[in-house]
Specification:
6-stranded antiparallel sheet; 5-stranded antiparallel sheet; alpha+beta; 15 strands; about 250 residues; single chain
Length: about 250
């Protein structure tokens, strides 16, 4: 929505869109307006370095930069080891004042607010919140309320089937032993207007956070699903064929 674009994230989300659609059943989520904002910790307090993750933030229309991210299925963020989970604000390209919440189900069961206002007018890059200790066997989920700080009602989660527009609004990647999540906050398909559609740019950079779930959990999650691997291979092959066609047309 702003001129900033997480190009690597955009390509990732595009590749995963068809693969992840419908992978999980719809799951209702109720936003609790009584949640309070947990203490926000600066990166000087936590020791978290946001700088490597800013490499994803690129000017509009720039080519994808490979920074070594590994795609993950955002609906399967299940911890195999206990860990104090922390969420760090990385960047945002939104015109909205988005809110972010989390849900833990399984061994640890609770919900809560992560950021009451995920805006760079309020947060500094690298600011973090602790979600407390989360036990092994817990499934983590994250939900964005688009423009929630200003009363917005659209809530988007990792499960495509649970989103009212039936579209993917979250992608996940592993990078530097952390989990990176990027959110798209506009309702509807690319450039679609009319009804509830908001002319979405589908750039998945409207709220970008890093989740610290521990190196052991990242390693356990970092084996791509076969369907995802095949989908990415197909995407890469198709791109290579288009490139060769363009090169051949130039030569001829």
């Amino acid at each position: 929505m702003k001129t900033k674009l997480l190009t690597g994230f955009f390509v990732t989300a595009t590749a995963l869109g068809g693969v992840l659609a419908g992978i999980s059943p719809a799951h209702a989520f109720t936003w609790n307006n009584s949640w309070s904002q947990s203490p926000i910790l600066s990166k000087s307090q936590t020791g978290f370095d946001d700088a490597p993750f800013q490499a994803f933030v690129q000017p509009e229309r720039m080519e994808k930069v490979d920074v070594g991210q590994l795609l993950l299925d955002p609906t399967k963020l299940k911890l195999k080891f206990d860990h104090e989970v922390k969420v760090h604000f990385i960047n945002e390209g939104a015109g909205f004042r988005n809110q972010l919440a989390y849900e833990a189900t399984g061994t640890t069961t609770r919900t809560g607010l992560v950021f009451n206002d995920a805006s760079d007018d309020v947060l500094k890059y690298g600011d973090g919140v602790s979600l407390g200790n989360v036990k092994a066997g817990t499934l983590l989920d994250f939900w964005l309320r688009a423009d929630g700080r200003n009363g917005g009602r659209n809530i988007f989660g990792t499960q495509t089937a649970a989103n009212e527009d039936g579209l993917q609004h979250v992608f996940a990647a592993a990078y530097n032993n952390y989990l990176v999540l990027g959110f798209e906050d506009l309702y509807g398909g690319l450039g679609a207007w009319g009804g509830k559609n908001q002319g979405s740019d589908r750039d998945f950079n409207d709220t970008v956070v890093v989740v610290d779930i521990g190196e052991d959990n990242i390693r356990a999650m970092s084996v791509p699903e076969p369907s995802i691997t095949l989908g990415l291979m197909s995407l890469g092959a198709a791109g290579l064929m288009r490139l060769r066609r363009r090169q051949n047309s130039v030569v001829s």
